[in-house]
Amino acid sequence: MTESIAVPHLPTARGCPFAPPDGLADIREKNPITRAVFEGGEEAWLFTGYQEVRDLLRDQRFSVRIPRSVHTRDEQPPRPGRGSLLWQDPPTHTADRRLLAKEFTVRRMQSLQPRIQRIVDEHLDRIASLPQPVDLVAEFATPVPSMVISSLFDVPVEQLDAFQDAAAEMMRVDVEPEAVQAAAGRIMFALHQLIQAKRAEPGEDLLSALIAADDPEGVVDDTFLVTAAATLLIAAHDTTACMIGLGTALLLDRPDQVALLRADPSLIGNAVEELLRYLTIGQRGAERVALEDVRYGDVKIKAGEQVVAHALAANFDPAFVPEPERFDITRRPSAHMAFGFGPHQCIGQQLARIELQIVFRSLFERFPTLRLAVPVEELPFRHEMVFYGVHELPVEW
After folding, report:
1. Which SUPFAM superfamilies match (predicted)?
2. How confident is the model over 273-285, as pLDDT tens digits?
């Protein structure tokens, strides 16, 4: 009689709020590719090893157009049209990414540094005038990336709060699909109006540049622009906001690392890369579906079976980085997968890096005695969201 092998559940509970979920390392050590039961109640393949996740994310025998999400109980994931890189496969994804990548060059992102610095300084000035303690999420981590990405699209200031609220609603995994769809509808409607205004009066913003782009196939219509803008606005705003809030909480919990950064400000680049690796805020893993039968070593994945690439587990693989559980801003920057890997690697990663470097350098220069106003265990962490972070971060100085 053959003994059945128990299928593990994907761990989600964290003993330490800054560490990966308890039990995730055990799964990776036993088998970096295994069947697992996910939060939606279904089984799928789970990839947790660094090399295995890299191989999967660049393997074009897998599609991002999954029939359903194993992380939730939703029957059907969203199916945006052209312009949403998240849900496209080649050749459509390749063509659309090429169009958008022209506007996300390293040179253009670097040219935004003075604008980002001004936005950061204005918010730090405001924080300095507020009574303590201050919620750094509400006053800094959320509005700064919102203003940065919105300035790229020239979104009117009076619409920023509405965009932030709708984006937050769309990133929850514990609400009804109707609520997410309603939030998406509000963003789409506002962007459609903005696009009409840009067609009438073009500016120096990203939308105007896309409208004027060389487009012989006529791909860049209003639907493309709305979808692309919504995807970039939501993804760039929420992910960077999470990294600012969670990254600040981690640094304040590790004063020795902050001391190193103050002693040597040139470590800011290393610090940001280590924060990205260590926190890897995409906490549940990227989903794919096999387009054909695929074999990885002794593992055979059948066509139609779903797989999950767990970047957080991969970034803590000791085969990738020594002592991965040690947070060390002097660590040599590594080829982490906080921005994903392969064709779907984050298109805005250079903007995120520049923004995070300016944010953390400026924050600790302006407030050298910054500290948490409550114990770490009292912070409300975003366990129920797509991207991990903190809902609130009370600080004083």
Report:
1. Cytochrome P450
2. 999 999 999 988 9
